[in-house]
Amino acid sequence: MSLEFVNPPELGVPKGFSHAAVGSGRIVFLAGQTALNPSGQIVGETIAEQFEQALGNLLAALEAAGGAPSNLASLTIYIVDMDAYQAESRAIGAVWKRLVGAWYPPMAGIGVSRLWDAEAMVELQGYAVLPD
Fold it and tell me: Of 17, 21, 64, 120, whose Cβ has the fewest other Cβ atoms within 10 Å?
């Protein structure tokens, strides 16, 4: 597997994401994950707590497909309350570093009015590239 993150200088230095990724290998399409626990209940009182559960769910799906956090090639975060998400960005960053590491794939944060589960504050959906 090959995964290279690209950050051209003309786009400015990204903070918390990369501008692009180039990969070769098997592609894994990861479904959107919210803060559902194994019983099907949304858990977490804060966005950071829900982010941790949702990211853990996404990484569990990736692991079941034969991958690891280092295989993440792209991530989209759907956010119900952008201001609250930004206010908790340090806590969210700490969760990311603990579960994934100090690198960031290309990401997008998209504000939405609600998610499938009304109690969900964030949903993560992504792509990964695994070795052939």
Answer: 64
User: What is the per-residue DSSP string for 29-91?
Assistant: EEEEE-SB-TTS-B--SSHHHHHHHHHHHHHHHHHHTT--GGGEEEEEEEES-HHHHHHTHHH
Q: Which residue has the tokens 């504000």?
A: 111
Residue 17 has what pLDDT?
A: 83
Average predicted confidence (pLDDT) for the chain? 93
CATH of 2-130, one of 3.40.50.700, 3.40.50.1950, 3.30.1330.40, 3.90.190.20: 3.30.1330.40
